[in-house]
Amino acid sequence: MPIYEYECSQCGRTFEVLQKIHDAPLQICVLCSGGPIKKRISASAFVLKGTGFYVNDYPSEGRRQGSDSDKSDTSPEKSNITAAEKSEGAR
Length: 91
Known about the structure:
alpha+beta, Rubrerythrin, domain 2
């Protein structure tokens, strides 16, 4: 269940409430029993855990270096044959 943050207009304090998504928003402050209160928008924090995620969103040095070698240029060398040399060879 998400945690919602509210701010009371009467006492000016903020508080958090654990509510279901489909629950109606609160109308009365739980701290001073006054109101009106309004729902605040705040940043949420979440942690990605498991083998598919990096701790800091970056690979370790060993994995980073390994991926760089995979991207090395494996294309064949270009020959320096000009158009004139190609046409002479075709004769």
